[in-house]
Amino acid sequence: MRKIIHIDADCFYAAVEVRDNPKLKGLPVAVGGSAERRGVIATASYEARKFGICSAMASATAMRRCPQLILIPGRMSAYREASRAMQGIFADYSNLIEPLSLDEAFLDVSDCTRCKGSATLIAREIRRRISKTIGITVSAGIAPNKFLAKVASDWNKPDDQFVITPDGIDAFLVNLPVNKIWGVGKVTATRLEKLGIKTCGDVKKYDLIKFVQLFGNFGEHIHKLACGVDDRPVVSQWRRKSISVENTYAQDLADLSACLKKLPELMESLEKRIEKLDQDYQINNSFLKMKFNDFSQTTVENQHFKPNLDDFTLLCKQAWQRGKMPVRLLGVGVRLNDLTQTNGQMELFS
Ligand code: TTP
To answer: What is the C-alpha separation between 329 and 58, in angstroms, rounded?
Structure first.
């Protein structure tokens, strides 16, 4: 039986800002782009959340909901620094660390002997050290697998932890809403609800064969997780699946030709980012994302092994046809094939 801890910082960017400017403590604070330049909220302090402010909300909406909101532009270098410091603390407890983002990671502490080998005590010690030395709070979930640990870290947020022991798995899952399962979004949740399935307990009762007939491989995945089974290992080296750049324009791009004019500079930034990739990536596909001024968005994709302007021009024309209205955001990117994985598989077969 494994011991997995999922750590997630509380309102991470905002917490770093409040730490660096204690006058902000207790006030509604958000980190994001300015309302005038059509920015969006990256995160909001818990005080700001009381006004209904949340990540990805337009800053203009946030300011309307809470006129006294203190909106701060992001300082990525400070967040990266805090993230590195957290990783340094994690490394004292395990070599198996899988960061999911700057402020979130899984740790497999099955072999850790510190804190008498108790994952609960390890999590408490990590949280105490982060708070003391980095000056922000984190929440933790402790469980026998990744799925449960991730759900658990959200259970007592902020600044606390929650443990799911092997004996407690069934009782925990019986009433857990099925949308807590990774990948179960609104569409799947609605389909499930039509079958009378609202909780993981309901999934568990549903016949597996029938479930797989209805939902395919994804159905098997959901069924396993709903029964508390998740064998995915904590993978210490995180590898990219794609790389992209996008821009939300201060003024809408009025028509297709305005969009096409923006492609060279977007491509230039994309190429710079691609240059920084290691040699073990191969480009598979190019894609272009377009968000229209009614907030609908579309992504078009094509197989290209080297992104070039002609291909992105074509993708841009295709995307435009889908909305034919002014554009607020344009993004270009490529999907990546991780050769370290592919080579590993080739070795297995050779
Ligand atoms: P999250 O871990 O999703 O959230 P959070 O740390 O802000 O708050 P919570 O206490 O609810 O976990 O995101 C981590 C950081 O990533 C967040 O501080 C800011 C950034 N972020 C964005 O920039 N845009 C987004 O849409 C989201 C969700 C997060």
So the answer is: 13
Q: What is the pLDDT of residue 348?
A: 43
- Spell out the residues 6+ positions from residue 32 whose beta carbon is closer than 8 angstroms to its own: 39, 40, 41, 42, 43, 59, 62, 71, 72, 73, 74
Of 68, 108, 69, nearest to 90 (Cα)?
108
All structural domains of the chain, each given as residue ranges with its CATH number in brackets, are 4-10+77-165 (3.30.70.270), 13-76 (3.40.1170.60), 170-226 (1.10.150.20), 242-344 (3.30.1490.100)
Residues with CB under 6 A from ligand 1: 8-13, 42-43, 55-56, 101, 103-104, 157-158
Q: What CA dihedral angle connects 164, 170, 175 and 179, to 10 degrees?
A: 70
In angstroms, the CA 178 to CA 172 distance is 12
CA 86 to CA 99: how far, in whole Å? 10
CA distances to 3, 210, 221, 256, 286 from 313, in Å: 49, 45, 38, 10, 11
Neighbouring CB atoms inside 10 A of 65's CB total 14
Q: What distance in Å separates the CA atoms of residue 214 and residue 191, rounded to the nearest whole number? A: 10
Distance CA 317, CA 324 (A): 10
Which atom of ligand 1 lies at the shortest distance from residue 13's CA? 18
- Secondary structure (DSSP) of 293-325: TTS-EEEEEEE-SS--HHHHHHHHHHHHHHH-S
- State the distance from the centre of ligand 1 to the C-alpha of 149, rounded, in angstroms: 18
Buried b / exposed e over 267-279, threshold 16 CB at 10 Å, is beebeeebeeeee
Q: Residue 16 Cα, ligand 1 centroid: separation in angstroms?
A: 12
Mean pLDDT in each 10-residue stretch from start to end of the chain (350 residues)? 97 97 97 94 97 96 98 94 91 90 96 95 97 96 98 97 97 96 90 95 92 88 95 82 87 97 96 84 93 93 87 97 96 89 47
